[in-house]
Backbone:
């Protein structure tokens, strides 16, 4: 267990434990990825920022109430209830006390069905990683004029929207994650990576969860947040694995992502990569994992007859086995 | 069965007929008039290549992001070399094709082959559990043992489970190890088997673990003073026979009877038959009597102003008593004596029948002791309860009171003037039908209703605290007609009666009689009984001694008056005696001691190699259980006195004592007063030495001079006691409860209905498992009443809310529970019972109807407790009756509170591992630890000097088995007296050759050390903690010969017969015989022979048609044999540091460890593997049995199973 101390955000000195890596097994694998890995170490499952909002009041050690106007938040048996109230321009929301340079937090939010159709739009639920008012990224569900819900990923740098992605969304329970590692952003909805962006600022971010109604038209947004959970993730080179299984504080496991070469082509790189564990802080281990090329299956495919013919070449590096493959030789 | 090779395109090519036309280079593709599109996979994405066809440049092509190169060219008939030349590296990648017409049908064949090959591949995969497909594994393996992948497991976890289950059935069927494997396959935790037949109550009725607990044995010498009586050999006298007293044995030749005289008073004559005879002495000197209260008494006219007596069998007499609120004892005495004197059947001789004894009302026969009796009888307005109280068995009643309802006991003080009532309710409108009972004694309020669900005993307590215990047999209970629920009332009267009768004989003699040698004339001889020549009259029972007798002491043994009264039959030679210890000097303290019974105690006890229990255990096997020492005491001297019971577990060095208990006084010294009871309980600590447990009683009395009588001494183990049956035998209907096998199991997560079914646990079962789409009932709480319950579902499109609520039978709905996401939800009914459901929100139905909220419901019938056979019973021996009981306790978050250790992947990740690795599993609880590295062969050592020797470090921690470790010097074995292990990973060599290469073959140590187990969250002393582990062992298969005699049936055409099992074909150890019912004829060896291992042949000329042949031969059988050696260790401490500082001690499986320490650690070391698949460590655990404390509950042990 390694202790560290560091200044954070100019607000004081935080002391604590940091994630620690003993080993990754295996420490080598094919460039195509897909193989299972196990990381052993310590402090791999930080839970101190997790919150199910079942306590009778907001945990001020973790959150600050940022509600304004007629907006309010409450906690209890029904978890975190946000209610903007009808006053236009109101906000109901919270902001994390802590800030992170690397973070993946899962938010389980219940988006109520749209039953009112005022001529306005509203931010029904917003999950934001915020550096300051001018630099931030959001994953938000908005209600348009016709009552259609839209899920939007949007990154803003120096007050300019530099990246955006939208898709339609449905009410009900959703699980949202934003994975942030340096300049890399992964937007994950219900377990699926819906968008990535690699040009974000590298400054520390705070988490904000809120709902807001239209600045001009009365409307009430009232989402519920069941859970805020910090999810440890692993990065091979600069390829994050967002869905690792955290077995315990001492063990996480998952599937290796494909390597990426300098041109961004998947499975095209063989060689060592740095390994980063983003859990209790960001732990970087140089050259901890090594990709190798698999012996490749060459297929000659006549589209006219659809006959598959192939043979195995041994002209690649690090051929691991001589197992038989395919229908060929 | 051999499978086709699935890679058969080559075969196809090879199958093409020969000749130049069919020759091909590389792949054969069909000719077509247009272009053929070719795709080549390369390892170079986004790379430009030059394309050459038969060395002719044909343009450039570029690989895509996957490295694929696709191009279209026209190919004429013939062979082509297709070469890609990397424009950057210059590397050349050649491939070949041949273009032919016949390739058209090759293509067709190939398509069919593809399909067939897929099927063959799947069939091949389904041959073994390890490769079986997701769809095939249940059909091919799971179905055979009725275990499906319906527990939410990952495929690998399911593979491991059925693999272990199948091996369990194969190797350990009908054995406890199989049962253990079956349970652990689902729980990861081996169960604890408890054999009530061996450990628990047994037919050795009313036995105690106290040495000589009834004072039946008193060593003495017995001999004839003269010539004796021919044919009569003295064996022993009863313990109450006094030393150096006047005894004679008389033989009456005329009647052929023996008589035993004590000081001239003969006992009954006994016919002098052959064998061991018991000859009673004269009748007991205890005069029949009944001692009552001191008064004054509340005698109310017309209520309790009568007393009904029958003394010395002279007839019943009704006595009127003086009435009044505080009638004095003397008045009652006068009333009774006057009434007896006035009755001609009794007369003046009974003028002092009633008297004052220790200022209490005494009724005592005036006659000599023999045959006297005093009987209190029942009658109206009976004053007996006021004068004498109600003791157990004073109340009388008739039984049965109704069909199927039998009164077994009544306790308390009921009003005897009127009838008591039992009301019975029957409801046939539900399935299963319900039956309930309530009770009230005369004038009392009804007890609560009690549901009768199983055959057995039930207790009902009415408003006057009178407790009625009834036995119920459901099948015989009345079926009341509708309308239901229907009720009926059964009335019965409660009477009173108490009897004291002198029927006992004392000071009996046991002899061996040889009838043929008896004399022909009457013969008599004096018999000497001598305890101790020098100490004279000191009589004390064997196995007990006086530890603290300084002054003059007298001890004596006499027949027991009341505490143990089973000398009801004069010929009962297993009576009970009491022991009197008196000191007439100035002592103020007496102490008696005894060893606690050791017999029968084969060591080791039920733990370790005796686990599960193979032999009876007694006191010494119950470490961790509470032991109880008790006895009955009476002081015959006036003055306050106490008795303090105590145990020593270390041979008497230190003692743990109970609190002093006051001993009742009987200043009259007649032993008429009731004895006082004292007991002391304490936990038997671990590590008790053989024969090291002692029990003692210390008597204290302030003034000098004391006489204490001890009776009914008992040492037992709470919960497990051979005295459990008391003085009744076990009815057949309860036989299973007392004699079946118990299996307690623990599970790391609450067991679902499906798991309970697999394990054979009792559970309540719902008629519908998925009553509403998206809702699966996983648990029905044990207190859910049987009957039709209702699950209601509500959908509200406003806010898209989805809710569930539950109502059990004859209850009302509990609160709505909102289903926000997928997961388990507990739905409470208003009566407190509950069901747990797993809800999948997306599957919950969108109801249509009147908006916004729409509801629907389903009725679910909950059965009463029901049991599937389950693996536990299927894998066990036929005819075994097993109660499987889940004793795990969970906290509100579902974490077990009496199960600690390394069980899950998370637990193992926090554990210390040596040469071992963790198998990931889904769910985490099905993870295990397996060997990471195989035994080493040829590991090259690098020695460096260390003092006079040379040392080398091994790559791995070894098993330090010097016998089997081989050290080589340049390939030649180094004698193992020249080297040794100086540490687990270090070898020290005494003779080193520079320049030589040393290699070593050695086995590895595999070890799991759990994280520190913190039990401080619970009251650790309330539990018995059993240390255990689950080590799945692949087992080696060893073939061995087993002599077998089998019937054989010869084919009359060829003289051959098949054998069921393989034979070792050794004729020297085999024989063939003809058995015709009257004789056995051995067939000469030359006439028959083994053809092969499973066939014998008899010369046809020798074949006797119709005869039955038997062959005795050595059958070859395969036995599983473990190669592993394991060491299980434990340490503990009151604090974390104390635990970590404690030394490890080896424990056996299911050994009870300290329950006064909050911190524990377990370690398991395994050696002896030959393959990485040889073992799986599934768990190291501390399992808690909640045996102590206010909420102690171990089903089957602390109460009915």
Residues:
């Amino acid at each position: 267990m390694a202790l560290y101390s560091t200044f954070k955000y100019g607000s004081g000195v935080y002391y604590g434990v940091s994630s620690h890596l003993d080993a990754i097994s295996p420490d080598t694998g094919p460039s195509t990825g897909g193989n299972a890995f196990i990381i052993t170490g310590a402090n791999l499952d930080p839970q101190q920022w997790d919150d199910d909002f079942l306590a009778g009041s907001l945990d001020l050690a973790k959150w600050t109430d940022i509600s304004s106007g007629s907006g309010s938040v409450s906690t209890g048996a029904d978890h975190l209830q946000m209610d903007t109230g009808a006053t236009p321009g109101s906000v109901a929301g919270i902001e994390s006390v802590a800030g992170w340079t690397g973070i993946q937090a899962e938010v389980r939010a219940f988006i109520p069905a749209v039953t009112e159709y005022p001529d306005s739009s509203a931010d029904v639920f917003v999950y934001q990683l915020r550096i300051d008012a001018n630099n931030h990224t959001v994953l938000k569900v908005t209600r348009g004029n016709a009552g259609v819900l839209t899920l939007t990923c949007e990154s803003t740098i120096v007050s300019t929207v530099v990246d955006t992605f939208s898709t339609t969304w449905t009410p009900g329970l959703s699980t949202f994650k934003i994975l942030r590692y340096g300049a890399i952003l992964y937007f994950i909805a219900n377990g699926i990576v819906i968008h990535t962006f690699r040009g974000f600022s590298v400054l520390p971010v705070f988490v904000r969860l809120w709902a807001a109604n239209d600045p001009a038209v009365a409307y009430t947004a009232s989402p519920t947040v069941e859970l805020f959970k910090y999810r440890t993730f692993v990065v091979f080179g600069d390829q994050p694995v967002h869905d690792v299984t955290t077995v315990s504080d001492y063990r996480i496991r998952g599937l290796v992502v494909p390597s990426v070469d300098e041109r961004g082509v998947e499975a095209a790189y063989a060689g060592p990569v740095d390994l980063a564990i983003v859990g209790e802080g960001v732990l970087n281990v140089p050259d901890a994992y090594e990709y190798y090329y698999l012996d490749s299956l060459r297929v000659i495919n006549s589209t006219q007859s659809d006959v598959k013919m192939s043979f195995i070449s041994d002209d690649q590096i690090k051929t691991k086995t001589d197992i038989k493959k395919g229908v060929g030789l | 069965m051999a499978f086709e090779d699935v890679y058969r395109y080559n075969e196809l090519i090879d199958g093409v007929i020969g000749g130049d036309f069919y020759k091909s280079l590389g792949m054969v593709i069909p000719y077509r008039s247009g272009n053929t599109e070719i795709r080549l996979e390369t390892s170079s994405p986004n790379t430009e290549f030059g394309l050459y066809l038969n060395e002719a440049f044909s343009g450039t092509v570029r690989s895509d992001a996957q490295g694929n190169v696709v191009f279209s060219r026209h190919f004429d008939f013939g062979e082509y070399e297709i070469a890609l030349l990397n424009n950057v590296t210059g590397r050349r990648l050649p491939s070949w094709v041949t273009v032919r017409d016949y390739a058209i049908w090759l293509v067709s064949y190939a398509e069919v082959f593809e399909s067939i090959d897929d099927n063959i591949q799947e069939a091949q995969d389904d041959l073994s559990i390890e490769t079986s497909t997701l769809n095939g594994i249940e059909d091919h393996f799971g179905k055979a043992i009725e275990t499906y992948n319906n527990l939410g497991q990952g495929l690998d976890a399911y593979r491991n489970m059925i693999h272990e289950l199948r091996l369990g059935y194969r190797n350990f069927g009908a054995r406890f190890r199989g049962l253990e494997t079956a349970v652990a396959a689902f729980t990861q935790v081996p169960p604890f088997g408890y054999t009530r037949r061996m450990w628990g109550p047994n037919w050795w009725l009313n036995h105690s673990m106290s040495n000589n607990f009834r004072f039946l044995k008193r060593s003495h010498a017995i001999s004839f003073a003269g010539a004796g009586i021919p044919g009569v050999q003295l064996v022993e006298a009863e313990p109450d026979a006094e030393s150096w007293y006047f005894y004679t044995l008389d033989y009456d030749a005329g009647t052929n009877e023996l008589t035993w005289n004590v000081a001239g008073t003969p006992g009954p004559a006994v016919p002098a038959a052959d064998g061991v005879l018991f000859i009673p002495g004269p009748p007991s000197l205890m005069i029949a009597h009944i001692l009552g209260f001191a008064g004054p008494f509340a005698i109310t006219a017309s209520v309790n102003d009568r007393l009904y007596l029958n003394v010395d069998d002279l007839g019943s007499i009704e006595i009127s008593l003086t009435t009044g609120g505080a009638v004095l004892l003397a008045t009652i005495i006068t009333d009774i004596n006057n009434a007896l004197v006035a009755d001609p059947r009794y007369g003046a001789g009974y003028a002092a029948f009633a008297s004052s004894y220790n200022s209490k009302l005494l009724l005592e026969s005036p006659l000599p002791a023999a045959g006297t009796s005093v009987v209190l009888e029942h009658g109206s307005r009976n004053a007996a309860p006021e004068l004498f109280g109600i003791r157990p068995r004073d109340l009388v009643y008739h039984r049965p009171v109704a069909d199927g309802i039998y009164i077994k006991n009544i306790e308390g003080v009921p009003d005897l003037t009127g009838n008591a009532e039992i009301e019975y309710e029957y409801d046939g409108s539900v399935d299963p039908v319900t039956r309930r009972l309530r009770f009230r004694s005369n004038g009392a309020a009804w007890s609560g209703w009690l549901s009768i669900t199983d055959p057995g005993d039930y207790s009902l307590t009415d408003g006057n605290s009178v407790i009625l215990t009834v036995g119920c047999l459901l099948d015989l209970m009345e079926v009341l007609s509708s309308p239901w629920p229907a009720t009926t009332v059964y009335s019965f009267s409660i009477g009173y009666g108490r009897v004291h009768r002198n029927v006992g004989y004392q000071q009996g003699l046991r002899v061996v009689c040889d009838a043929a040698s008896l004399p022909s004339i009457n013969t008599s001889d004096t018999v000497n009984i001598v305890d101790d020549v020098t100490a004279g009259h000191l009589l004390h029972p064997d196995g007990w001694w006086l530890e603290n007798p300084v002054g003059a002491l007298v001890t004596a043994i006499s027949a027991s008056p009341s505490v143990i009264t089973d000398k009801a039959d004069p010929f009962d030679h297993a009576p009970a005696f009491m022991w009197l210890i008196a000191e007439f000097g100035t002592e103020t303290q007496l102490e008696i001691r005894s060893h606690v019974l050791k017999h029968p105690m084969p060591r080791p006890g039920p733990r370790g190699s005796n686990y599960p229990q193979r032999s009876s255990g007694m006191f010494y096997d119950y470490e961790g259980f509470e032991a109880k020492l008790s006895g009955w005491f009476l002081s015959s001297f006036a003055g306050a006195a106490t008795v303090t019971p105590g145990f020593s577990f270390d041979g008497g060095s230190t003692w743990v004592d109970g609190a002093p208990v006051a001993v009742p006084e009987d200043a009259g010294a007649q032993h008429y007063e009731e004895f006082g009871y004292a007991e002391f309980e304490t936990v038997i600590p671990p590590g008790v030495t053989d024969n090291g447990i002692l029990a003692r009683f210390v008597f204290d009395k302030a003034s000098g001079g004391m006489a204490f009588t001890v009776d009914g001494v008992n040492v037992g183990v709470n919960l497990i006691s051979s005295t459990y049956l008391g003085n009744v035998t076990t009815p057949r209907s309860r036989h299973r409860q007392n004699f079946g096998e118990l299996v307690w199991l623990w599970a790391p997560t609450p067991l679902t209905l499906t798991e309970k079914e697999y394990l054979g646990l009792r559970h309540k079962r719902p008629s519908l498992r998925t009553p509403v789409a998206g809702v699966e009932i996983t648990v029905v709480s044990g207190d859910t009443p049987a009957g039709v319950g209702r699950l209601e579902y509500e959908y509200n499109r406003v806010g898209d809310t989805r809710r569930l609520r539950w109502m059990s039978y004859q209850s009302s709905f509990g609160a709505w529970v909102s289903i926000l996401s997928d997961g388990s939800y507990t739905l409470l009914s208003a009566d407190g019972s509950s069901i747990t459901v797993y809800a999948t929100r997306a599957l919950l139905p969108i109801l249509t109807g009147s908006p916004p909220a729409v509801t629907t419901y389903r009725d679910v019938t909950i059965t009463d407790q029901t049991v599937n056979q389950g693996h536990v019973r299927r894998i066990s021996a036929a005819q075994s009756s097993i109660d499987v009981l889940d004793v795990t306790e969970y906290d509100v978050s579902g974490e077990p509170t009496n199960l600690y250790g390394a069980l899950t992947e998370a637990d193992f990740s926090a554990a210390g591992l040596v040469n071992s690795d963790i198998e990931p599993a889904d769910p985490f609880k099905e993870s295990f630890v397996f060997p990471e590295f195989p035994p080493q062969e040829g590991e090259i050592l690098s020695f460096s000097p260390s003092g006079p020797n040379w040392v080398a470090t091994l790559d791995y921690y070894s098993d330090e088995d010097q016998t089997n470790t081989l050290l080589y010097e340049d390939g030649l074995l180094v004698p193992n007296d020249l080297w040794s292990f100086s540490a687990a990973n270090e070898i020290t060599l005494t003779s080193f050759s520079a320049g030589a290469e040393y290699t070593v073959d050695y086995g590895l140590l595999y070890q799991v050390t759990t994280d520190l187990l913190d039990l401080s969250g619970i009251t650790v002393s309330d539990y018995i903690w059993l240390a255990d582990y689950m080590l799945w062992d692949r087992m080696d298969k060893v073939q061995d010969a087993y002599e077998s005699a089998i019937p054989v049936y010869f084919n009359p055409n060829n003289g051959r017969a098949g054998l069921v099992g393989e034979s070792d074909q050794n004729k020297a150890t085999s024989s063939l015989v003809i058995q015709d019912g009257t004789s056995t004829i051995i067939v000469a060896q030359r006439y028959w022979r083994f053809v092969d291992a499973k066939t014998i042949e008899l010369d046809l000329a020798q074949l006797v048609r119709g005869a039955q042949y038997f062959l005795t031969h050595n059958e070859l059988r395969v036995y599983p044999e473990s190669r592993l050696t394991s060491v299980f260790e434990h340490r503990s401490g009151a604090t974390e540091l104390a635990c970590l500082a404690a030394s490890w001690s080896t424990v056996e499986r299911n050994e009870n460890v300290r329950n006064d320490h909050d911190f524990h650690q377990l370690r398991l070391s395994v050696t002896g593997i030959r393959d990485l698949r040889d073992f799986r460590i599934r768990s190291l655990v501390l399992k808690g049995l909640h045996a102590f404390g206010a909420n102690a509950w171990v089903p089957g042990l602390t109460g009915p199973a």
